[in-house]
Amino acid sequence: MTSSPAVTSASQWADALDLHMKTSKEDAGTLISFGYATGAILGVALDPDHPEADDERGVIASEDGWVIRYVEQSGWWEVVSG
Predict the structure, then answer these.
(1) Is 31 domain-assigned?
(2) What is the pTM assigned to this prediction?
(3) Do the domain assignments include residue 1?
(4) Which residue, 80, 78, 38, is CA-closest to 46?
């Protein structure tokens, strides 16, 4: 994964993931899988134990409490909370 500027909000994280997917051609499932394997996605530490996190539905959470999800119909990430 490419490094990205410091992400400071859930909306920045979603935007960074959108851009990363567009430029890398990686799909959401691959990003999530690698993220859980490494503990972070685009420099944002994941919280796999967050009650809203559900990798099967494309919902990920950060240690900062941000929750975002991948919306397959639109092909974009959106903020759930944070």
Answers:
(1) yes
(2) 0.88
(3) no
(4) 38
